[in-house]
């Protein structure tokens, strides 16, 4: 193709050309400058047309044929310093077989290759070696992404995991638990938090479940204690979910270490679970931290430090958070179907089942709550099934179905032994009289236990007015009360959600009062009389767990709104230097909540295991015997788990009461005969524990004519029957 190049400095060819319309005009139309626009139509398959250049004042136009891979040929502009010779065009891009025709049409016989310049009538093929020259402008472009090797990818993945929010939340929860429960881990093999009675029992429970599941799982519920009673492991909450930890270590010292570690981890899980729930519902990070700290370290829980099955409540908010995440629902944003995830929902059901396996003391109300949620969800599905196609989704429905079945199966399997115990031991069931004894008055909601570092001494008079203050000091924290009250008026939650949370607080408080609120006629008594298993709950005040969680969510809404407002104020300030101080102010609510949870919980040294417990076989009886004295004996049996009459639980079986009564005169003919008929072979008397008990003078009694041998082993005396 022959073209003319303008002699004027402004003569250009190339990218500024007007695109052709696709119509070929044989005659050029003169423009005002005396030149002509000559649209050229590119030949070849799929060519739409060639662009034309603006004419120079001398009537000669510069054109640069540009053959594109999509079949369009264009013209390029050439600057004033172009080296193109007259009569020749510099072609930016052309096919290898493209030839310029004399009629202005560019014919292409192949696919154009971008970036191969050509000159004259025929496109060039590049440099002498046939290689495409590099673009000098690439040096100024962005650097290409590096290709990561497997080790570098692994390091990057680990780095992301380390700085992830949930990793940091878990580490912070664990560190806070160590500090807030100190000195639990100072001497973990020798001390127990609060006292060594119920914690000794629960240390034995952890050890027994791990031991028996490794040796003879079929005998799980027939423990080595309360001989010869069957189903004795179900005489109290079992903490069965901690059985994997019980498989590690043997003996009393390992049992104490195990208990103390689980005690700290239970606090950490409670903090993490409540944080996760608040975050899933829409709270900010600091708001979630306030919810987590207030739930795990509420002052009223300090009185429960000796009850690991009550402290182990972190699975409740964690399961609720997972279920909400799986269903794409949050309190702040409502239902978002795109965020549904069947895996999270199924995991939530598994965590709920694990929480139930720790005990029915707090697990039973949780189970009834989940049953209510399932019922509401079924109603929602029925209402929406015509308006919204598959409102829950097939995979999510299957996850809920399978997860719910697992949860129900675990609950049913755990309930069977307790129903057996209730059938064999009618005295194990609670009565309304006992509920009345443990029901706290309204003043209990503003009274802290003696273990509170901040309020313990100040509330001494208020505790003295309570009939049974260990279960009636129910203060969740004055800071929490204040933050929750503020959350009713200033919050990220919608008004109706705040009212729902407030209603939940009031309802759970009424239930926590047992028969003290309107005699319980419309609150606790109907549940006690009609819900299966509810009559096994002894202390209504533990419903305060739900009150604390709901108050924490109200507080999280207020703190989140406060933090958002602080960020706005910090951004508006000029200069912005006060911003960091305002942001630090958002930590004040969290610090106040943590300070109110500080404790002075005692950590007494557990009595050392007598050497005789490592040598004497069972079935055996250790004297003296009582509810409190038997619990350390259970701990001492974790070396060999020999069968023994001794045992402590929430109730005393008739057979055990009869043994204690029959052996007051031991050793005499009647008591020895009774024990032989029962199957007891050895009686161990702990000399240093006899003082002040009904068995105080028994070591002075003779054994002549009874067929009994007596042997002293250390500080103990062994009678072999």
From TrEMBL:
Protein's UniProt keywords contain Signal: no
Annotated TM spans: 161-182, 257-277, 297-321, 342-360, 366-384, 396-419, 474-492, 499-518, 543-564
Tagged with keyword Transmembrane helix: yes
Protein origin, superkingdom: Bacteria
Alphabetic keyword roster: Membrane, Transmembrane, Transmembrane helix
Residue ranges that the Swiss-Prot or TrEMBL entry lists as coiled coil: none
Name of the protein in its database record: Uncharacterized protein
Stretches for region Disordered: 1-148
Biased composition range(s): Basic and acidic residues: 100-114
Organism: Micromonospora fulviviridis
């Amino acid at each position: 193709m022959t073209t003319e190049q303008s002699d004027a400095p402004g003569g250009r060819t190339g990218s500024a050309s007007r695109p052709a319309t696709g119509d070929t005009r044989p005659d050029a139309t003169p423009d005002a400058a005396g030149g002509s626009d000559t649209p050229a139509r590119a030949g070849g398959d799929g060519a739409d047309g060639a662009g034309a250049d603006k004419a120079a004042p001398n009537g000669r136009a510069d054109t640069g044929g540009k053959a594109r891979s999509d079949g369009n040929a264009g013209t390029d502009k050439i600057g004033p310093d172009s080296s193109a010779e007259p009569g020749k065009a510099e072609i930016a891009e052309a096919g290898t077989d493209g030839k310029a025709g004399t009629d202005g049409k560019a014919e292409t016989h192949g696919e154009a290759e971008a970036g191969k310049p050509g000159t004259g009538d025929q496109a060039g093929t590049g440099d002498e070696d046939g290689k495409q020259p590099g673009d000098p402008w690439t040096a100024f472009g962005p650097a290409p992404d590096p290709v990561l090797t497997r080790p570098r990818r692994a390091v990057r993945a680990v780095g992301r995991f380390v700085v992830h929010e949930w990793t940091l939340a878990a580490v912070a929860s664990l560190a806070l638990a160590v500090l807030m429960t100190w000195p639990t881990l100072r001497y973990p093999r020798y001390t127990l938090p609060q006292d060594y009675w119920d914690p000794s029992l629960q240390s034995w429970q952890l050890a027994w479940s791990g031991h028996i599941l490794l040796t003879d799982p079929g005998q799980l519920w027939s423990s080595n204690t309360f001989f010869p009673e069957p189903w004795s492991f179900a005489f109290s909450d079992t903490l069965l979910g901690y059985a994997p930890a019980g498989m590690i270590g043997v003996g009393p010292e390992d049992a104490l270490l195990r208990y103390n570690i689980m005690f700290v981890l239970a606090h950490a899980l409670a903090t993490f679970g409540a944080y996760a729930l608040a975050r899933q519902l829409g709270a900010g990070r600091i708001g979630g931290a306030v919810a987590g700290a207030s739930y795990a370290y509420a002052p009223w829980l300090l009185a429960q430090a000796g009850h690991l099955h009550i402290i182990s409540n972190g699975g409740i908010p964690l399961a609720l958070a997972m279920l909400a995440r799986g269903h794409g629902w949050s309190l702040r944003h409502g239902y978002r179907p795109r965020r549904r995830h069947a895996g999270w929902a199924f995991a939530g059901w598994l965590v709920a089942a694990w929480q139930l396996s720790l005990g029915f003391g707090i697990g039973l109300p949780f189970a009834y709550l989940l049953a209510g949620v399932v019922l509401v969800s079924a109603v929602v599905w029925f209402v929406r099934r015509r308006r919204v196609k598959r409102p829950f989704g097939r995979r999510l429905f299957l996850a809920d179905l399978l997860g719910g079945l697992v949860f129900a199966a675990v609950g049913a399997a755990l309930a069977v032994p307790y129903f057996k115990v209730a059938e064999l031991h009618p005295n194990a069931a609670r009565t309304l009289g006992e509920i009345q004894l443990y029901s706290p008055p309204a003043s209990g909601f503003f009274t802290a236990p003696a273990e509170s570092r901040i309020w313990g001494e100040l509330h001494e008079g208020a505790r003295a007015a309570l009939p049974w203050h260990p279960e009636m000091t129910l203060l969740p924290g004055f800071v929490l009360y204040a933050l929750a009250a503020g959350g009713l008026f200033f919050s990220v939650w919608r008004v109706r959600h705040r009212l729902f949370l407030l209603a939940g607080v009031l309802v759970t408080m009424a239930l926590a009062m047992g028969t003290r609120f309107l005699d319980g006629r419309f609150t606790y008594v109907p549940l006690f009389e009609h819900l299966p298993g509810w009559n096994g709950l002894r202390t209504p005040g533990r419903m305060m767990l739900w009150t604390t969680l709901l108050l924490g969510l109200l507080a999280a809404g207020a703190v989140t709104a406060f933090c958002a407002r602080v960020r706005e104020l910090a951004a508006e300030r000029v200069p912005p230097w006060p911003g960091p101080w305002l942001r630090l102010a958002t930590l004040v609510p969290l610090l106040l909540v943590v300070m109110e949870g500080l404790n002075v919980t005692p950590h007494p040294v557990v009595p050392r295991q007598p050497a005789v417990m490592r040598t004497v076989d069972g079935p055996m009886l250790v004297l003296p015997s009582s509810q409190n004295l038997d619990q350390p004996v259970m701990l001492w049996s974790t070396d060999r788990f020999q069968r023994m009459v001794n045992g402590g639980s929430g109730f005393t079986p008739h057979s055990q009461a009869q043994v204690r009564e029959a052996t007051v005169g031991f050793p005499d003919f009647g008591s020895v005969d009774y024990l032989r008929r029962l199957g007891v072979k050895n009686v161990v008397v702990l000399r240093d524990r006899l003082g002040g008990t009904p068995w105080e003078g028994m070591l002075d009694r003779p054994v002549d004519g009874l067929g009994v041998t007596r042997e002293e082993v250390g500080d103990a005396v062994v009678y072999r029957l």
